[in-house]
Amino acid sequence: xxxxxxxxxxxIKKAPPVPTGIxxxxxxxxxxxxxRSRLRKDFLKEAEGIHNHQTSSQNLSDTQLQxxxxxxxGLFKSQKKITPEMIRESLSHIQEAVFRKLGFYPFTExxxxxxxxxxxxxxxMATGEGKTVTAAMAAVLRGxxxxxxxxxxxxxxxxxxxxxxxxxxxxxxxISAGSVTSEMKPDERKENYLKNVTYTTAxxxxxxxxxxxxxxxxxxxxxxxxxxxxxxxEEMVPPNIVQRGLHTAIVDEADNVLIDEAVTPLIISxxxxxxAFEEACFCASQIAGNLHLNEHYKRDEKFRTVVFIKDIExxxxxxxxxxxxxxxxxxxxxxxxxxxxxxxEFFLRDHQYVIEDEKIVxxxxxxxxxxxxxxxxxxxHQMVELKEGLEMTPVKETQAxxxxxxxxxxxxxxxxxxxxxxxxxxxxxxxxxxPMMLIPSHKxxxxxxxxxxxxxxxxxxxxxxxxxxxxxxxxxxPILIGTRTVAESEMLASLLQEKNFxxxxxxxxxxxxxxxxxxxxxKKAAITVATNMxxxxxxxxxxxxxxxxxxxxVIATECHRSSRIDRQLFGRxxxxxxxGSAAAFASFEDELLTQNLPRRLWPVLKAxxxxxxxxxxxxxxxxxYQSRFSVQKTDTWLDExxxxxxxxxx
Amino acid sequence: MVVDQxxxxxxxxxxxxxKEKVALRSTVRIHRQLYRGVxxxxxxxxxxxxxxxxxxxxxxFISRLSPNKTIxxxxxxxxxxFPDDAPGQxxxxxxxxxxxxxxxxxxxxxxxxxxxxxxxxxxxxxxxxSTLLNIFFLRIPLVDPDPLLKRLMPLIRIVxxxxxxxxxxxxxxxxxxxxxxxxxxxxxxxxxxxxxxxLVWIYVCTVFxxxxxxxxxxxxxxRFGGEVHTLxxxxxxxxxxxxxxxxxxxxxxxxxxxVLVGFGGILFELFIAALALIVWSNVGGGxxxxxxxxxxxxxxxxxxxxxANPLMRFDGYYILSDILDTPNLQxxxxxxxxxxxxxxxxxxxxxxxxxxTLSEGFLYAFYGVASSIYRIILFTGIVxxxxxxxxxxxxxxxxxxxxxxxxxxxCHFLRYIFVSPDLLRVRTRAVSSTFIFSGILxxxxxxxxxxxxxxxxxxxxxxxxxxxxxxxTGQMKAxxxxxxxxxxxxxxxxxxxxxxxxxxxxxxxxxxKENNLQYRKALHISPENMHPISKRxxxxxxxxxxxxxxxxxxxxxxPFSGIWISKDISNFDGKWIQKxxxxxxxxxxxxxxxxxxxxxxxxxxxxxxxxxxxSVRMSGNAFTEIPVQSLRIIPIARSDLPSEALGWYGGGExxxxxxxxxxTTEPFYLVHALLEKKSPVLYLQGRSGKIRFMxxxxxxxxxxxxxxxxxxxxxxxx
Lengths: 650, 718
Hints:
Helix content of chain B: 40-55%
Structural class of chain A: alpha/beta
Number of helices of chain B: 21
Number of strands of chain B: 20
Strand order of the largest sheet of chain B: 9-16-19-18-17-20
Radius of gyration of chain B: 41 Å
Shape of chain A: globular
Strand content of chain B: 15-25%
Helix content of chain A: 40-55%
Strand order of the largest sheet of chain A: 3-4-2-5-13-1-14
Distance between the termini of chain B: 61 Å
Number of helices of chain A: 27
Largest interface: A-B, 49 and 50 residues
Number of domains of chain A: 3
Structural class of chain B: alpha+beta
CATH class of the largest domain in chain A: Alpha Beta
CATH architecture of the largest domain in chain A: 3-Layer(aba) Sandwich
Largest sheet of chain B: 6 strands, antiparallel, barrel
Oligomer: heterodimer
Strand content of chain A: 15-25%
């Protein structure tokens, strides 16, 4: 490893603090200016110019084209300033390469997207508009520089697939590409990270980053590395470091990674058996077993916690006397008992978690996906296990911890793509300092969006949904039903089966069959029940016959906390100019409304159901944003305050 | 009692510090202090002069910090020894981070050196900002007085000692004695204290006294082993004065010493004041006397009013908080008010109380309200006072006051209401009750009409009164009617005696008789003489009649019924009274009018409006409204008051020229109001009172705005 590579290894961008208060105003105005719609027209015009320029390189032979591309590679690597002309010309050669290797010319919109990605925008492109190619073109431009370029995809499957599909293009352009997936060994990872362009998932890239940092230990600082190398003759870098550093990230499904999942931190931990702690947990769950709702504590629905209305100290003391241990003191038990009660009251099987092989598997409520590697922290996981009568997993001791939000702020070159992002533009700009650009779809959207229907209670809503399914199914059109939770999808499936409909279910419990089911969801008269974002990234293709019938019909059984995620679900129908339709249902018993609207306003809001949903979504989005923002603030605070701890990311 | 809901043991970032070995820097000192019977520990870093205060359970952790143990090891130890009272991980993180931020932590890793500089520059910026916001108390440190104080140590030991205390008591006692003896003179001289010629002297004396004051503090600090490292200039309300940083006293263990440091300045000043008073009373005149007076006045009265006043953050505040064992009295008061708001207005389920006892709560609430009202009044008063001489300066000061005392607190309040995590669970109620409250306030101010009135001072005058003039010269014989009594028409007011007059009458009568005889004789002897004699008779008769009339006038009759007022009539007894002397006033009490003086500002409203109601209230009977029957406005500007009682020198509210009692500085208009005849209020000539004109109803905001505009026009011609 030479000095410059060594320097690159730990070089990260020191992101300026997120502006708050009055400082946020000029920042927001700059953001608005940088995301102005005028820009989109310029980009599209520029892209059209490149698109029309294809004739000039059509006559070149493969070898001639390749030598031109290699020439570009040299220029991009050596030249400090890359002019717009260079990008325009090189892109026109890349599009020719795309045609020769993949068999089609990219649309103007895709070229505009690639330009946007190269220039550090988050671009919104409708699903099915060919984001993969767009990202690949931008990756070629970035890869030429020789600095690490990470393309972040939604899951392992997509990472591997995209890398292999685009491999010929990359090779033709003179750069190497690889992919890193979860089951890979460190050697393989290292090999793939060495490639110019690496396809991977956010989780993997962050985990590898943290593991590398743990390995580097006190040598995270470049100067310190150099000094210890020269003075103490220590090795520069531990040999098992896998990454080369952070430079470019192109994030697919940016809204999911950068917003929905942004604050869930990735934790590298090792399990360490701690008998005393387990005993304390056991005590706490025993004590909690004797406590009753409304007698000892009250539920706080809004914040998903409990409030004790009676003093529980005496009971804790009684237990502590019987089971002395450092963790049975009041300090510990008060906290643990509350966790136990929260586990009892708010953590429900098949909603928040499922049980697989005698183990708790957490289910992400927004996606309905299982997250087998995750666990709740600080004893909550153990409490849920105790509640279910399972064996307690050992306590995990954190070694490193970083939120995606903070991690992606480290990339000096950062851009992303999303299908639905305009709602989050403000947050992208404030937190990641990335402007947003909307790329129009190539073909006209033919989706028919039925108006939202709101019912007073869940039962009437279900009946209406079943009626709708019956009607559409009668027309022979395929139906995709998106539910919010796993339990709801199971319930709906059983209702449908009662009525003798044949339906397929994708949710956290049955995710193995996911890709197969999704692929068949577009077949004639198919009924598919899925949690909201199951099978993301896979197209639901429809046959010409179905297309004639009116395409896929999507039903949302509940409005999501964010209208963005509702839009994602609707986006599954009517792709690439196909016909299709979508309908949303909601009731006043839905969690969105019960949790986010003040009770006192209900009589008024019931008169304006649609406005009520809008308000509830606004409030939920705001609340989520606040919580993400406060996480960011605490992160910054900790960062400033714990500098005396040397093993920190610097 | 409900258990502590928020305390958590684990912290997600614990791993970052768990394996670290840190310790306190070797320069940091720890002191024990007892506040209200609770044990506290104070960390003190002399390098940066920073203090930290914490409870025993935290101290247990801090005392165990060592470069040989990891933080986690210490924590586990604590958990084992004090399972009920060990600090949680989050608390430890917070503690260590604040220790780190104030550079009290010794740690092995060099960390990122640039961060140290970053932090320093951040601190500097913060300091500049707070200085700008506190422009009224701008402090500029100049030198380090510690070497000087060290050299003065022998002197300090003498000065702060028991014999000197005795001397102090004697001197101050003697000063007080002189002060009581000469109280009247001292008070009279105070009127000329703020005269423009004296201002320079005041400032010079203040600087001199404040230097002694500051040395009083620092001597006390030094005497008890503290260090004083800053001597500088404080621009208090833009006037440069010396200051010293005596915060080292905060870490003194005994309350007695802390209080003494707080009192140090005042004690020194009082001593100076007593000396100055002794000098003042023993010097005949010349330059020394007024200077001694100035020194006395500043060192005693103003010091006791400002320095010893706990409502401002001067000595008195620190003394009070030390005596009451309530450090950070002001912050705590603020927090307590917030707590009250959260508990009673927003009904938060578990607000965090600041006060541990009821009395402490009362103290905080009282102090919080009183000090903020006091400060607003004081600063506004100062700004207005300055504005009369330096308009632009006062505008700058006013704006910065507006910013620091209204705009910024208001913004903080808004942020607190709308985004602070404290109100997370009661946000809706907090926001709605704030809106409702400000809505009600707005309605009261802007919509609900309030009586629109203006008042004018004036005096009561009888509609009819007569000065009684003596008509005949004579000696006072009898006074049948005393002063201030009611007399019927025709009653004698006083009776004179004039023997001369009697003689003259007798003489005239004799002359007349003689003439009569002569007339008869002429009739007989010389009829040609008859005509002149009859003419003379006529003259004599006339003269006699006049004398008789004079005689009847010796007993003066009241011309009409009313109250007879003659203050010194009793002194006239037996005295010779000349004709034409004014003897007293007779006032007809059947009808009174109120003569009011209306200032220029109100005059347009006086002439333009039709009044809904006009009434008069007499001073001394402020609750009785006397209706006005009719009003007569005299449309000529005048500048001589109808009575001295209305002018400044007569105790009234109208500004008069310095050389006159009735010449006003600004012209005014007279209004005569005829009062109802019967009233429970005693009508007395010259009794002062106020007339109140009610124009109708108008919202308070509009009235306030108009008053403000008038003030602007009057004082600043804007």
